[in-house]
Amino acid sequence: MSDRYQGFASSPLGKLLVTNLGLPSPTRLERYRAGDPLVDGTVLVGGAGRLVADLPAVLGELGIGSATTDAEDATYKALVFDATGITDTTGLVALQEFFTPLVRRLATCPRVVVLGTTPESVSGGERVAQRALEGFTRSLGKEIGRGGTVQLVHVSAGAEGALASTLGFLLSPKSAYVSGQVVRIGAHGSTTAETVADWSLPLQGKVALVTGASRGIGEQIARTLHRDGARVVGVDVPQAASELQALMRGLDGDHLVLDITAKDAPQRIAHHLRTEHGGVDVVVHNAGITRDKKLANMGTDRWESVIGVNLTAPERITRVLLDEGVVHPNGRIVGVASIAGIAGNVGQTNYAASKAGVIGLVDSLADELEDGITINAVAPGFIITAMTAAVPFATREVGQRLNALSQGGLPVDVAEAIAWYANPASTAVNGNVVRVCGQMMLGA
């Protein structure tokens, strides 16, 4: 679906009006296509700490070119700064000294990643300084412009060798609509990473379950995981059976038609995965519904149906798959939350409760899982789908523009974040909730 305002703003007349009236001027975002390099340009690495020396080798493993010395007047596609060596607040000036000369020399749709230490793992002045990094990165994300993104990655002690999958995602066009986020590596469970033989097909030989897979975001999740090598098992309700079957045929996948809220749904899913595929490696709880009403006008049926589909069913399915050993070691469980579960929305007390509950499921299980199994969630913001196309024009425009990128995201943006979580090398990425929202100006 095209963004008409973005098209107008890039026209000669539109550029004139946007400039003179101070209107949002969204940059057309670069998005990854199979076969593209992860980074089309050079990454400049800087800083001082326990990570910087190994960063060129990590980037080289991903096929990303890097430099450790700034070449005068050079243009960079991305910047990676190791801030783990900042142990007191006076050391924060290193951020200004590194970034100030460089921010005007970044290419279009640039990427910035700051690496820090998990604040809770240190104390005193170091904890203060490391916590300060979050304010820096979130603010720079709102300043950088030109379709750029900025992230903070907290790397726990011992997880220094588990950076590759996260840097591959955050430095590439796969993270086009993710900005101002804090990612934690090694904070829950494992601090190691499985070796990936082929970074272009990290899910080769893996089985991925996707609920609500027939259309919209679910369809793009299925397509993206298939692109990365997975055999996809799509699940959807009987009303969507024909679309689901057609999609899975095109992806050489498998399908299961059922209502995930049915009493026996978790057992049926577990049985199918065990008998037809020998288990599962990636579980994506994408199925979701809305039944909006202000709470004063909401009936019990609206409340229970939303909670049942969006929260209770994923919780029940997850518990059965884990209890019955259907999820393979180094498996992945991914929930689809929402910015509504973080910031709230008028008329969506039921939906927001269900999506906050998905985040609660991540919090509940992150420290309980064993054998390298992880659980994470994405929290989409305004994603352009057939559903949002039906939203009144004025409401839709406000929803799309109130973020640092001044535009709505696409279903593939959510799918790419899930593929990063699903990567076998993301074992140390556990207990995270990353917002795919273009860094919303409010509530994010």
CATH architecture of the largest domain: 3-Layer(aba) Sandwich
How much helix, percentage-wise, in residues?
Answer: 25-40%
- Rounded to an integer, what's the Rg over CA atoms? 22 Å
Question: CATH homologous superfamily of the largest domain - what is it?
Answer: NAD(P)-binding Rossmann-like Domain
Q: Structural class of the secondary elements?
A: alpha/beta
What labels describe this entry?
single chain, 444 residues, alpha/beta, Rossmann fold, 7-stranded parallel β-sheet, 6-stranded parallel β-sheet, 13 strands, 36% helix, globular
Task: Describe it.
The chain contains 15 helices and 13 strands. It is 36% helix and 18% strand. The relative contact order is 0.12. It is globular, with a radius of gyration of 22 Å. It folds into two domains: 31-185, NAD(P)-binding Rossmann-like Domain (Rossmann fold, 3-Layer(aba) Sandwich), CATH 3.40.50; 207-436, NAD(P)-binding Rossmann-like Domain (Rossmann fold), CATH 3.40.50.720. Strands 9-8-7-10-11-12-13 form a seven-stranded parallel beta sheet, sandwiched between helices.
